[in-house]
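Q: what sequence does this backbone want?
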């Protein structure tokens, strides 16, 4: 079923160079998202419209809430933590010239799964690692080009992963904090490249398609069952939020677009009552 952009609203009119990583912070009832190349974390309270920004000082691929307050962030040089008072410390610092952190997600056990990529998107230059709450790091995947969307099935038994240039969504068996038995879940085809994603309460995957101008939903058996057009060519990721976890928020990018043709590029979009999302765990460290 193909949707249309008419049902999409602008939650935050912005000019993010590379908006990414929307996450609903249930404890604070706000949406967290990042502008990677502007080195900023954005906070948006849909109930009041209040917006605040945190400058990270270096490119930030993802920001997630922590159980004790504050944030865990996937930065250019590694993974760091902000306390509730704004103070910062490194959890794992491992700078590699030409490489930065990209998408990340918190697993059901409270660990952070953090991806990296090279700035030139060279094949094999990225990785995917598990960062435990105490800072122990285990690299799970190497040889990745652009480590992107990560998510888990409602029962936590499956983990999904996207290496964008492959134009494929993969799935792993997930048990005891470990991801094994990697296999293809869906060959995406069509226009654009799969980027960030989220999983809903029915186990369906919602995937933003970079250069595709759409968000697609895939059923738990890998079948494409819905396509929603968005008014920008570069949607980057999506997440359910709001008090009922029913509103689908979509981040977008302005980089290398024509502002006259795409005035909403870089804005935070939302589809009200798009479905039923899953509560997202906070980082336990």
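A:
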């Amino acid at each position: 079923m193909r949707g249309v952009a008419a049902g999409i609203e602008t939650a935050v009119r912005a000019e993010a160079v590379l908006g990414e990583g929307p996450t609903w912070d249930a404890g604070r009832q706000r949406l967290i998202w990042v502008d990677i190349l502007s080195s900023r974390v954005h906070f948006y309270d849909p109930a009041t419209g209040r917006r605040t920004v945190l400058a990270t000082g270096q490119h930030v691929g993802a920001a997630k809430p922590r159980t004790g307050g504050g944030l865990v962030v996937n930065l250019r040089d590694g993974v760091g933590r902000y306390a509730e008072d704004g103070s910062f410390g490194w959890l794992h610092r491992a700078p590699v010239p030409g490489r930065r952190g990209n998408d990340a997600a918190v697993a059901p056990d409270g660990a952070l799964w953090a991806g990296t990529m090279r700035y030139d998107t060279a094949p094999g230059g990225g990785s995917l690692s598990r960062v435990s709450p105490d800072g122990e790091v285990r690299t799970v995947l190497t040889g990745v080009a652009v480590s992107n969307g990560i998510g888990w099935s409602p029962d936590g038994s499956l983990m999904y992963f996207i290496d964008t240039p492959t134009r494929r969504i993969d799935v792993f068996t997930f048990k005891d904090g470990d991801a094994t038995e990697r296999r293809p879940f869906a060959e995406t085809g069509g226009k654009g490249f799969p980027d960030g994603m989220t999983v809903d309460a029915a186990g369906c995957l919602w995937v933003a398609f970079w250069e595709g101008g759409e968000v697609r939903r895939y059923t738990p058996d890998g079948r494409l069952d819905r396509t929603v057009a968005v008014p920008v060519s570069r949607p980057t990721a999506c997440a359910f939020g709001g008090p009922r976890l029913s509103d689908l928020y979509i981040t977008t990018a302005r980089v290398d677009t024509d502002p006259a043709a795409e005035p909403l590029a870089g804005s935070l979009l939302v589809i009200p009552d798009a479905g039923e999302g899953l509560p997202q765990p906070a980082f336990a460290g």
